[in-house]
Amino acid sequence: MEDKKYELNIDVRILELLGPNLYTNIYYVLAELIANAYDADAHNVYIISEDDKIIVEDDGKGMSYSKGEITKYLKVAAISRSCEEDSKTGLDRLKMGRKGVGKLAALSVSEEVHVMTIANGEKSGFVLSRHPQSNNLQSISDDSVRFRKITSNGTAIVMMNPQYHLHKTPTAVKRNLMKIFPAINEDFKIHIIIGNKEDTLDSVDKEIGKELCACILLGTKSSNIKNTFRNEYPSVDLLVENNSKTFPMILKDNQGTEKEYNLIVEGWIGAYKSTRGRKLESSDFPDNFISLYAHDKMGEFNILPVVGANRLNESYVVGQLYIDLFELSELPDMALSNRQGYKSDDPRYIKVISYVKDELLPNIIAKRVAYAKAKKDQSEKEKVSKQEEEERTFRLNVNEFRKSTSAQVAQTIISKGNDVSEEEVRFAVESAINANSNMLGLKPHIDQQKKKLFISHTGSDKEIGDIVYNMLLFNNVPPEDIIYTNCDDEISRVPQGMNIYDYLRKFFVDSVSDKKMYVLFITSDNTRTAWGAMVEIGASWITRVDHKIFNINKFRPEHPLNDEAMWNTINRAEDGRLSMTKLNCDDFCSKIEQVCEVVGYSHKTRTENKSKLSSMIVVE
Length: 620
Fold this sequence. Notes:
620 residues, alpha/beta, seven-stranded mixed sheet, 33% helix, elongated
């Protein structure tokens, strides 16, 4: 009987199915391509965003056609490492790649991807497509193999007519990449180039350390966190330095042989001081997360939904944990195909999840609670101390008021002689009280309690209101001092159950204080048809308040607004894209700084403000 032969035949159209569905976010795609550059021993990766393409270019070793390296690259799902002998690169880096599908990542972004490479002077290039007609790919001529930044060896992945787009500011792209690709240092840098703007990532955790109020370190992998963390309340132990956590485990290797391994957890977990104004774009990764990494490559962005209980304090939690046993080559591969998670039934994963859920997360939440208590206690002490000082001052002022007022009344009556009418006495008393009432010190206290800023806008222009609001917070204006009716933060909104106009009347009209509200008007074509906005403009004119104007598109603010002063202009395209010129960026920051000076808060530098504004809006 003739032996039957069975041959698996995979149609190249599998790319049409895999390509667009493999990854769910442009940053995951970039992370895969950056990981390929890392494994190619690159020192620099350039992410270049142009109108019709996104390019990821690296100065790694490149791929040689003659030596069969490109043929190996084009083997989809070919395992790149199965033992420890082939788990390191030429620069002794632990390889990130394993499954052989990362090369398809770019097809999640574009239907057509150009791959160009140079290895020791040998140029090669070809086109990957979601809709290949055969196994033979279209070649790119040597003359057409060109690079933007590299001059010798390297590879460029060019995603043509991308269906996902990067943020228009390098700062925003940088902010997201830092969360998912921590293997950045002086030896491996990522350069982000968007138009004529460029930014470079050469460290991940330096900035995060400054934003934390509490932190638990595991091992020595995150020294930058330790070096930049500042404990605001030294009486409370808010920075804990532990050795890496080790769990002995019996696991089966790729051949099914049981061996003993050590599962080692390193990294850090922390809690933010505040979460206000952090997530600026809908495409941004959230700032509260616990990520898992192996071989410095992200395996799962956020396990908080798995280990947490949806408690309020979890919104402050952030962490990056490194478990290289997840990627040990001699053990079965536990990563999901899209590199966005791990197999939940793998004993290594179960062990880490239990550790984080039962120990790490409760401990950092306890630290966050301790920080909040210390902050509250400090605030209460300052409040009591301030109250005691105000009471002492008030008693002194009352005594001085009595002496001065009685003396003034007595002097007035004496000067009138014996024939003084009741009306003259009453007038003398009232005059003395009015003249000396400032001695009681009540007015400054009332002034201090009053709201200082009002952001006037229509609901349709909320995105500009959010930018103004976040810039005020960035410049040290407390949210308690701002009225912003559409604010995401309850503290700046009109109190529940209170009529908005009654609430505004308290500060515009009915206040004892003569300090006037400062109004920031956001004007656009929507303003004329918004009754509330017109009422606010009228109220500000009647009460003669100072104001600044932030205008959208070519709308022209009119009287009673100060239409003679230069207003700031923000451009809003039909697709909602916001942008401004460099001049208007500088003017916007200048206006925010002037407002801060008027209401009594020290603002950031112009450079800091322009950088912050550029992360929220395109500056052209």
